[in-house]
User: What shape does this take?
Amino acid sequence: MSLRRGPLSVGERVQLTDRRGRKLTVMLEPGGLTQTDHGLLPHEAMIGLPEGSVVVTISADKWRRMRHKQDAGTDTEAPDRAKPWKSSRSIGGWAFTVMRPRLEDYILSMPRGAQIMYPKDVARVILLGDIRPGMRVLESGAGSGAMSLGLLDAIGTEGKLTSIERREEFARVAMGNATVFFGQRPAQWDLRTGDFDTVAADLPKDGFDRIVLDMLDPWNRLEQAYRVMAPGGVLTAYVTTTTQLSRLAEALRADGRWTEPEIMESLERSWKADGLAVRPEHEMIGHTGFLLTSRAMAPGQQALRKHVRATKDYQTDVDQGRSSAKSSGLGHEREMVDLEDLEDLELRRVSDRKLRKVLRDLDHQVRTLQGGQDQED
Assistant: This one.
């Protein structure tokens, strides 16, 4: 993975940004032409320029004259054999700044098959998962390659990334995006297709420092994940719904070989600063997914758990007692008992003393209110 510097060259992806902040990402090709809403941009005008240059669109008529001069070597007017251009494309004179795209820009503009992980989540996975150069990382769910690009960039050429993707066509998309971004196929990336458990069964025990799971049912993959994870390794899972989050967290606790899960989500909001007009933008990137991290315990060691007071029951289903009463045929008396037992499920139990004080205060306020109304009457 060579860091590209110097003039822009054929085969590179560049990002065009106009004065309104609109972005367009293209790959420079010999004889290439990019159509915009404000005219045409010949790639020859960008090849060889340094980053940060400004290029200006031309009209379709000017492009046809330029091509005819190159083909015929004369200044005579060319017959109109070109493809009919849309009228909106025939405008010229619109300026764009040309730069090499950042990783975030590339992820948001690259071709995709599956839904990508947003850059804000990719960055948090790398930080929360403590993924650094030289590490051995296992990834499940390559998708279109957004997370894979971040992981490859984080581990560097000294590290090793092994990715497992169920669908072969998605694996091809991910590898293609990585090859275009880095300029060559990453040598430190082992991309495999198949089911996670099946592929992971052939991986070496304790062979990975970090694991990243982006899949529908990560709680079903904990057995193989623990087998291939080195003691103390960090597991990071990306899930999108609260039901997935709850199920994964409880599975980690019940397993006993993983530390207490840490859960977070990130929200992204841009700001506008124009003189004294400093305010947040009207749109933001809100919830995209939850990030859960946990660490692998040493073999034979039980993870420590936070003590929960007996008055707080987070596990019993509210409808469980009601259902069991009806199925056992105990009738109305048993059901009333179950309704009384629901008090034990309260997450914020109010003491009798505090409840009596609240009632006294409310009774006093009601009497005061009624007294004031009687005086008005």
Q: What stands out?
A: Residues 13-79+86-101 form a domain with the Vcp-like ATPase; Chain A, domain 2 fold (CATH 3.10.330.20). The first strand starts at residue 13 and ends at 17.
